[in-house]
Amino acid sequence: MRHLALIAVLLVSLPSATAGQELRLPNKEGSVKFAIIGDSGEPSAGQRAVAQQMAAWRGRFPFEFTLMTGDNLYGSERPRDYETKFSIPYKALIDGGVKFYASLGNHDDAGQIQYKLFNMDGKKYYSFKPKDGVRFFAILALERITGTRLGYDYAAPAPRRNAAGPLTEGSGDSKERASRDPTGGPRWRNW
């Protein structure tokens, strides 16, 4: 019983112990600063709260872009859905010049590669360089064999590699290598 009382006291005091702490992020001048979001495509109070917190944190940590790790839009994907599920919730960031770089997840329609604000330029696999010496790759780990939705249930591996192992983008023009784990696979699914 004393253990339960001690646990209760610790749980009650935990919020007050952490309330005075300040989150510190590496904010070195000249560094690449970015945010990451995933499973962001359902218009709800939670999504709006995340977008508001991102906008507030940008004042202290001036990130220039956001990586989207997939499941960018849930449900239907009509033109109005792109507004209600993305451009309206993240309007403050978009208007402030933050670029979003999406990768597709298992709930995403392949047509998202055409959406201008996702910066995919019509490619499922792409890369971008926010500054010299830094390159990000957007990689779709698995694709469904049939249909336009992407998924992990009837999957074939992607992206393409040649025998030497370089990762090729959608256009096939990249000569750069992706970081890989000892088993030979990429270290990430989408990013």
Sum this structure up briefly.
This protein is an alpha/beta fold and 191 residues long. It contains four helices and seven strands; from the N terminus they run αβαβααβββββ.
Strand residues, percent: 15-25%
What's the number of helices? 4
Class by SSE composition = alpha/beta
> Cα-atom Rg, whole angstroms?
20 Å
Q: Estimate the helix proportion, in percent.
A: 10-25%
User: Whole-Å distance between the termini?
Assistant: 48 Å
Report the order of strands and helices: HEHEHHEEEEE
State the shape.
Answer: globular
Strand order of the largest sheet: 1-2-3
Mean pLDDT reading: 74
Largest sheet: 3 strands, parallel
Beta strand count:
7
Detail the poorly predicted runs: 1-18, 144-191
Question: What do you see in this structure?
Answer:
This protein has helices at 2-19, 45-58, 79-87, 91-95, and strands at 34-37, 65-68, 99-102, 126-131, 134-138, 142-144, 155-157. The chain is an alpha/beta fold. It has a three-stranded parallel sheet with strand order 1-2-3, with no helix packed on it. Strands 4-5 form a two-stranded antiparallel sheet. Strands 6-7 form a two-stranded antiparallel sheet. The relative contact order is 0.12.
Task: For this entry, give a set of tags.
two-stranded antiparallel sheet; globular; disordered N terminus; 24% helix; single chain; alpha/beta; disordered C terminus; 4 helices; three-stranded parallel sheet; 191 residues
